[in-house]
């Protein structure tokens, strides 16, 4: 349910329908009655009664009653509309809507036909029209589903143009002559048909919808009153048109109908557009006009130059006016610049009479048909002309003129930044991220706006929290006084603008605006002083003007006031720190090198002065407003606010997006169309493939390789002979694919679903040559003996020990090939191991290429990086950027500074080795003075001696002792742990000698790499060289990539491959930016490979505002969208995390997810859980003390019964000896998390026998982690809530390895359609906790399939508490407690219970627990805290 719209149990009991419709006999009259009495009885302007619809949808009214009994001929109007409402509700709840229809595909197409013809059956009222329209919006946004797309796309095909006026058809064909031929074919076909083409559904559907909308719009305002239902319908219809014009398949032919009916102009001239209740409608019309005028060739899908197009239009208009309109001849002779704006055009058009104007618009320019009912209105005709020919601001100019920091006006505009309790009932004037985008600029613009607004929402919440705490009031002198205290804000002592620079050429805003603000930290404690003193360059601050009321408003009045009205907030302006100085004007936190390290001094005094860079665009807007009589915001700031550094990176990301819009983004050809949503399988086969791949240590033996590649595998020696006893490593040569066949396999196997190819792509890749069709039947595998790596232990390469599955091998093989590779990794399937091996094989096959490694979180990046270090990739080629580097559990420092220091240290070590080598060769000169002298020594003495040695040995190969006799470096290698040469075999000794020479060669190669660090003198230059030249694998988070993009471009950072882990958890734009961190070379993109690894079946990126999540789909990841598009991917199919029985709770969500041998054979997985009859179980928790769930504050859900039960089970486990660090307690809501923490603090934390568990957190925050035992509380007892999102269920069920115990209300969750596969499995076991009380020690020797002497806990919480108490007393009496207290422990009282940094209240839980708990940031539908980068 959406927040604020949940249905309570009382409502469910009073409903005139059952909780489940599975066994109900179908009665058409009952469907009609429910529709008329319940579904069509919405109050006020609401289109549906949400509670009633939600109850029916949760009870599977659609799946079990409406759809199974649907007959397209016999079904009533009410039956069809009931299905429509149920589908709408599923979309509102963000659960799969079309799944239940797939079982009757043909019937579904007939159902859609009924829907499309529904308005012809009977007249719909406004509320029914709105619901009908919402269904159409959802349908047109579901083009990835072929079931929907096949029917929907027929409505926007070229046949739609039969409804256009003849003039509009001529105009469209004039713009694109290639359309003439198919249009003539359609006309010929229509002429041959006996049916009236105008009556065909494909021709009349959209035009009739638009005409009906215009009729409603015309009557939406009567007198001074607006009909709320009509307003809602009009807003929804404009949203529908925006959706049509914002994706190519529907825009291509649909836009002509919108223009022919002049919908945009009529909306702008309608009474609703200027009505006070039409504010949202106006913003929607602006967005509609944006897409109607988008800089795009509608047929070719190519961007057009907006200035060139405007000039061409004006020129054509002038030619026509010169030849056919005498009154406009003077205008025809004017320059284009004189006709750019609305004012000039209006002046010229006013010279024409109404009839002349109508003739010009309708007959000569053919912009609208003369039969249009509006064609006699002068204002309409002028607006049509002006809209067609006025100069429009380009998208780049628009985004460059937009302030990056939000202001108070934007923050509290509900149509832009809705409150968190967005229910989905109303439309919003927001962009949407769906399947497809028009151009890269469109893609960037939508992401820019939504990311900016999401950041605005977070900033708004911070400001509101600060205003509540500072308690502003009016002082004695009328000045603002702050009686309270806020950690993140401080009063301003002084503020002044210090510099305003002249605008750049061609710009109107200043090039920079600098200010100074002074504040005091005298009243701050040492920790808070340190936080303010830690402010550094580029940190973002906010300047606030607070002017509170003389008399504070009453609580009743305050409830209806906005935050600015309530607290007197007048202005909010963002700024960026340039520098910060202390009271004696010393520079603090300098990172530019101006202050030398030895000259640094701690900050002095209590006063701080910060030099700020203000937003130039916002400053210009404010100065323009001041010139018109508005107040100057910069004269009244009295409060300075900061934000947490990890949450305050929005400006840099917005700047990166804006920079991309200003650049000619050259995305690789094979990737660009995919990003825009136009999947073309031909593109995937147009790369130069690697037919031979050296898999190095990927295969453990020959049988492993045979298992990995189905079909014929032929082992050969390097000479081409059959290898009878092959051994790794292997070099594999794959058959050359038939290009045409491969494309067909991709298309067939992935069901491309939508006709997405653009016109310009239609003919590409159809031809194949004979060489392309040649197919090699067998995979050729060459087993080879790698050269001796060297005589020392450190020379030996690190070897892989993971026996990869065939699907993992397929992922590794695909990842090494150029192009896009997508790997779907279900929980526990070894995504990280697969990614590391891809990097390892890629490094050895393409040693000159550089790879960028991106993850969402620092933890995942460190896990990946630590495993890379265990592979055969030299540490000098690894670099870790960002703040998480210090968390790496390694002895080496992989930061830029750490790598520079390591290279300098290594240089000294290598030069010492060179000096020792020189002594052994009796070379007297100082050859080890620098890297350069060492290089000369290599050429003149080392390499020369080696070549002489090789020549001497080759001349006498029959002498087995020749190697030992002639080897020139025997003295240098005298310290090897083993004897170098035996003197018995020439081949073996020569191989050992070659290994020694390789050691020397590697040594001098490393010295050559150190040479640059010797020549470069500054730390910055050395660090930049390391990043741009030296490092082969550079790792960072996606946030760091976006923050530092400008720096990467400035230093010339280059990379060839991109590997992105956790890509299903990363926002679209944060996935896209890392693809463009380098400048292009010769107009071509350097990026060769993009490897995306993730799991779209788990939780998506975190978006705090519900409107941006549900309406705009901002939580959609690029990975998930690619899967929707049908892009081929490899899905790992064997998990090694959980017991097979636990894995079955979620493996139904994946294709063929099985188990690795480890979880079937290892002892820990074969034995049961001590004290528990089952390894997993659902425990039904009834009301405790007469209550189930409670809501102490809005959207903050708690369930005391479940909390007590969970903690009692935790205590029981600890008494049996389960380690605390092996137990995690998870829940689905922040409120319950804090309640459980309070109970833990009260009952367990300070008790040496219990302590804290490893984690007490939400399932969302625990994504990507695991533990042996998980206790899970689902909290809700009235409605299922956000667990209906199956992705959250998958995360919750897949965190446990050995034991999972789910505490919930059985009667609620077992009825949920989406969760049924999991809960059916859970409910095959008793719903009362089954304990084995005669087992007293963990672990047990009982097998997991044996239940032992199971005892069912019948009385829930109270009985479990008694069991724990009795167990404790038994152990105390037997002395076991004392033994456990004396035994060494892992300090169980120090569990990671505060991982999100929130304080824990010291609440003692009793029968009347308090309802005010800390950190009420969690909400119903979005309980996750933002992942810290």
Task: Tell me about the largest β-sheet.
Answer: 7 strands, parallel
Placed side by side, the strands forming the largest sheet appear as: 18-19-17-20-21-16-22
The number of distinct β-strands equals: 33
Summed up, the helix count is 58
What is the helix content? 40-55%
What is the 3D shape?
Answer: globular
* Oligomeric organization of the protein chains: single chain
Binned strand content: 5-15%
Average the pLDDT over all residues and give the rounded result: 87
Helix/strand structural class = alpha/beta
- Unreliable parts: 1-15, 746-776, 1385-1390, 1393-1429
Task: Identify the notable features of this structure and list them briefly.
globular, 7-stranded parallel beta sheet, alpha/beta, disordered C terminus, 1429 residues, disordered N terminus, 11% strand
SSE map:
Layout: H1 9-13, H2 28-39, H3 50-58, H4 61-66, H5 77-92, H6 105-116, H7 118-121, H8 126-140, H9 146-152, H10 166-175, H11 180-192, H12 201-218, E1 221-222, E2 225-226, H13 228-245, H14 248-260, H15 263-269, H16 271-274, H17 279-292, H18 306-324, H19 329-332, H20 342-349, H21 354-364, H22 378-389, H23 395-400, H24 408-411, H25 440-470, E3 472-474, E4 480-482, E5 489-500, E6 513-520, H26 526-533, E7 540-546, H27 555-558, H28 563-567, E8 569-581, E9 587-588, E10 607-614, H29 616-627, E11 639-641, H30 650-662, H31 669-676, H32 681-684, E12 692-694, H33 702-708, E13 713-716, E14 730-733, H34 739-750, H35 770-773, E15 779-783, H36 806-816, E16 819-824, H37 831-845, E17 851-855, H38 858-868, E18 878-880, H39 896-920, H40 931-955, H41 962-966, H42 986-1015, H43 1019-1030, E19 1033-1037, H44 1038-1043, H45 1045-1051, E20 1057-1060, H46 1068-1072, E21 1089-1094, H47 1106-1110, H48 1118-1125, E22 1130-1131, E23 1134-1135, H49 1140-1143, E24 1154-1155, H50 1157-1161, H51 1163-1166, E25 1176-1180, E26 1190-1193, E27 1196-1198, H52 1200-1215, E28 1223-1227, ...
Parallel strand pairs: 13-15, 16-21, 16-22, 17-19, 17-20, 18-19, 20-21, 23-24, 25-31, 28-29, 28-30, 30-31
Antiparallel strand pairs: 1-2, 3-4, 5-6, 5-11, 6-10, 7-8, 7-11, 8-9, 8-10, 12-14, 14-15, 26-27, 32-33
Helix pairs in contact: 2-5, 3-5, 5-8, 6-9, 8-13, 12-13, 13-14, 13-17, 21-22, 25-30, 36-37, 37-38, 39-42, 39-43, 40-42, 52-53, 52-57
């Amino acid at each position: 349910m959406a927040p604020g719209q949940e249905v309570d149990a009382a409502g469910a009991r009073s409903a005139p329908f059952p909780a489940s419709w599975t066994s109900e006999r179908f009665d058409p009259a009952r469907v009609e009655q429910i529709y008329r009495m319940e579904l069509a009885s919405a109050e006020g302007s609401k289109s549906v009664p949400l509670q009633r619809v939600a109850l029916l949808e949760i009870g599977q009214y659609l799946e079990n009653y409406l759809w199974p009994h649907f007959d397209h001929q016999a079904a009533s109007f009410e039956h069809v509309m009931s299905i429509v409402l149920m589908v709408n509700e599923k979309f509102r709840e963000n659960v799969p809507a079309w799944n239940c229809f797939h079982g009757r595909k043909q019937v579904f197409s007939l159902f859609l036909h009924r829907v499309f013809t529904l308005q012809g059956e009977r007249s719909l009222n406004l509320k029914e029209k709105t619901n009908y329209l919402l269904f159409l919006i959802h349908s047109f946004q579901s083009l990835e589903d072929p079931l929907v797309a096949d029917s929907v796309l027929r409505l926007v095909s070229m046949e739609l143009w039969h409804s256009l006026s003849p003039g509009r058809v001529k105009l469209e064909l004039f713009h694109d002559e290639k359309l003439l031929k198919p249009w003539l074919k359609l006309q010929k076909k229509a002429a041959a048909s006996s049916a009236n083409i105008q009556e065909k559904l494909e021709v009349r559907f959209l035009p009739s919808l638009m005409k009906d909308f215009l009729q409603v719009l015309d009557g939406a305002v009567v007198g001074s009153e607006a009909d709320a239902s009509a307003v809602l319908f009009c807003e929804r219809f404009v949203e529908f048109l925006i959706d049509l014009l914002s994706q190519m398949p529907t825009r291509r032919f649909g836009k002509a109908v919108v223009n022919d009916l002049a919908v945009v102009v009529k909306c702008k001239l309608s009474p609703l557009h200027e009505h006070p209740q039409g504010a949202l409608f106006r913003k929607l019309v602006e967005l509609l006009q944006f897409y109607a005028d988008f800089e795009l060739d509608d047929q070719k899908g190519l961007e057009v130059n907006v200035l060139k197009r405007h000039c061409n239009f004006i020129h054509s208009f002038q030619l026509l006016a010169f030849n056919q309109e005498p009154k406009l001849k003077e205008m025809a002779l004017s320059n284009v610049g004189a006709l750019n704006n609305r004012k000039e055009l209006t002046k010229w058009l006013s010279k024409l009479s109404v009839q002349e104007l109508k003739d010009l618009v309708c007959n000569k320019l053919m912009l609208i048909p003369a039969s249009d009912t509006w064609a006699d209105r002068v204002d309409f005709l002028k607006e049509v002309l002006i809209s067609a020919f006025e100069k429009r601001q380009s998208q780049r100019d628009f985004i460059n003129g937009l302030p990056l920091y939000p202001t108070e006006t934007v923050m509290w505009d509900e149509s832009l930044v809705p409150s968190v309790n967005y229910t989905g009932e109303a439309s919003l004037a927001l962009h949407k991220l769906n399947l497809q985008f028009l151009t890269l600029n469109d893609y960037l613009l939508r992401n820019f706006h939504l990311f900016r607004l999401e950041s605005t929402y977070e900033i708004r919440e911070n400001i509101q929290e600060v205003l509540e705490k500072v308690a502003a009031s009016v002082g004695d002198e009328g000045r603002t006084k702050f009686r309270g205290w806020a950690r993140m804000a401080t009063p301003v002592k002084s503020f002044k603008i210090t510099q305003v620079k002249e605008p750049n050429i061609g710009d109107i805003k200043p090039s920079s605006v600098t200010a100074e603000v002074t504040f005091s930290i005298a009243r701050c404690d040492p920790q808070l002083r340190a936080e303010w003193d830690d402010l550094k360059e580029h940190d973002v601050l906010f300047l606030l003007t607070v002017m509170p009321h003389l008399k504070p408003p009453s609580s009743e009045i305050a409830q209806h006031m906005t935050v600015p009205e309530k607290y007197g907030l007048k202005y909010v302006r963002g700024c960026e720190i340039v520098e910060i100085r202390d009271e004696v004007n010393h520079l603090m936190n300098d990172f530019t090198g101006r202050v030398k390290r030895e000259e640094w001094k701690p900050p002095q005094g209590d006063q701080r002065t910060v030099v700020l860079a203000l937003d130039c665009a916002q400053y210009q807007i404010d100065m323009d407003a001041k010139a018109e009589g508005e107040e100057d915001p910069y004269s009244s700031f009295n409060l300075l606010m900061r934000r947490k550094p990890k949450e305050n990176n929005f400006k840099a990301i917005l700047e990166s997006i804006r920079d991309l819009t200003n650049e000619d983004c050259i995305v690789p050809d094979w990737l660009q169309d995919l990003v825009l949503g136009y999947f073309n399988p031909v593109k995937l086969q147009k790369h130069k493939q690697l037919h031979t791949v050296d898999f190095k240590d990927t295969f453990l033996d020959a049988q492993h390789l045979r298992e990995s590649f189905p079909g014929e595998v032929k082992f050969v020696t390097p000479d081409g002979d059959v290898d009878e006893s092959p051994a790794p490593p292997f070099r594999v040569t794959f058959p050359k694919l038939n290009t045409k066949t491969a494309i067909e396999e991709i298309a067939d196997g992935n069901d491309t679903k939508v006709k997405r190819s653009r016109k310009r792509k239609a003919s590409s890749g159809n031809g194949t040559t004979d060489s392309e069709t040649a197919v090699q039947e067998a995979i050729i595998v060459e087993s080879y003996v790698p050269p001796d790596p060297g005589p020392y232990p450190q020379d030996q390469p690190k070897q892989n020990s993971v026996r990869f599955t065939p699907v993992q091998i397929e992922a590794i093989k695909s990842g090494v090939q150029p192009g896009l590779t997508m790997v779907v990794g279900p929980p526990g399937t070894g995504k990280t191991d697969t990614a590391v091996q891809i990097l390892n094989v890629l490094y050895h096959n393409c040693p000159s290429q550089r790879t960028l490694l991106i993850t969402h979180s620092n933890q995942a990046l460190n896990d990946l990086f630590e495993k890379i270090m265990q592979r055969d990739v030299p540490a000098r080629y690894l670099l870790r950027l960002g703040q998480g580097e210090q968390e790496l559990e390694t002895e080496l420092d992989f930061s830029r500074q750490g790598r520079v220091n390591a290279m300098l240290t290594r240089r000294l070590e290598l030069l010492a080795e060179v000096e020792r080598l020189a002594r052994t060769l009796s070379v007297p000169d100082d050859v080890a003075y620098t890297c350069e002298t060492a290089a000369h020594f290599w050429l003149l003495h080392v390499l020369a001696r080696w070549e002489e040695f090789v020549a001497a040995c080759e001349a006498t190969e029959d002498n087995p002792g020749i190697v030992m006799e002639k080897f020139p470096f025997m003295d240098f290698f005298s310290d090897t742990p083993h004897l170098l040469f035996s003197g018995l075999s020439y081949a073996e000794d020569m191989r050992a000698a070659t290994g020694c020479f390789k050691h020397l060669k590697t040594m001098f190669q490393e010295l050559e790499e150190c040479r640059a660090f010797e020549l470069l003198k500054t730390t910055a230059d050395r660090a930049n060289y390391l990043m741009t030249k030296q490092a082969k694998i550079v790792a960072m988070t996606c946030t760091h990539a976006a923050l530092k993009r400008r720096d990467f471009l400035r230093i010339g950072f280059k990379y060839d491959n991109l590997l992105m882990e956790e890509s299903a958890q990363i926002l679209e734009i944060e996935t896209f930016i890392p693809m463009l961190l380098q400048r292009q070379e010769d107009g071509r993109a350097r990026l060769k490979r993009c490897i995306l690894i993730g799991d779209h079946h788990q939780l998506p990126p975190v978006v705090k505002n519900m409107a941006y999540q549900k309406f705009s789909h901002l939580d959609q990841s690029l990975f998930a969208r690619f899967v929707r598009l049908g892009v081929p991917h490899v899905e790992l199919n064997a998990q090694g995390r959980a017991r097979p029985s636990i894995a079955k709770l979620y493996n139904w969500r994946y294709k063929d997810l099985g188990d690795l041998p480890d979880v079937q054979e290892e002892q820990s997985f074969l034995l049961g859980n001590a004290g528990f009859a089952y390894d997993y179980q659902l425990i039904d928790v009834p009301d405790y003390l007469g209550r189930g769930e409670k809501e102490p504050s809005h959207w903050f859900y708690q369930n005391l019964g479940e909390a007590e039960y969970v903690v009692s089970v935790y205590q029981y486990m600890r008494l049996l000896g389960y380690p605390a660090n092996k137990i995690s307690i998870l829940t689905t809501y922040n409120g319950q998390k804090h309640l459980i923490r309070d109970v833990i603090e009260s009952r367990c934390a300070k008790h040496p026998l219990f302590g804290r568990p490893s984690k007490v957190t939400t399932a969302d925050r625990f994504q990507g982690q695991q533990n042996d035992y998980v206790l899970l509380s689902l909290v809700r007892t009235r409605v299922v809530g956000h667990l209906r999102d199956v992705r959250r269920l998958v995360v919750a069920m897949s965190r446990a390895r050995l034991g999972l115990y789910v505490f919930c209300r059985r009667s609620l969750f077992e009825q949920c359609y989406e969760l049924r596969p999991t809960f059916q499995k859970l409910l095959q076991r008793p719903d009362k906790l089954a304990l084995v009380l005669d087992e007293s020690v963990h672990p047990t020797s009982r097998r997991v399939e044996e239940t032992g002497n199971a005892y069912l806990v019948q009385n829930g919480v109270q009985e479990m508490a008694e069991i724990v108490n009795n167990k404790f007393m038994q152990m105390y009496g037997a002395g076991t407690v004392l033994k456990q207290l004396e035994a060494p422990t892992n300090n169980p009282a120090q569990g990671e219970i505060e991982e999100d940094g929130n304080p824990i209240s010291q609440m003692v839980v009793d029968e009347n627990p308090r309802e005010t708990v800390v950190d009420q940031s969690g909400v119903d539908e979005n309980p996750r805290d933002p992942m810290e980068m």
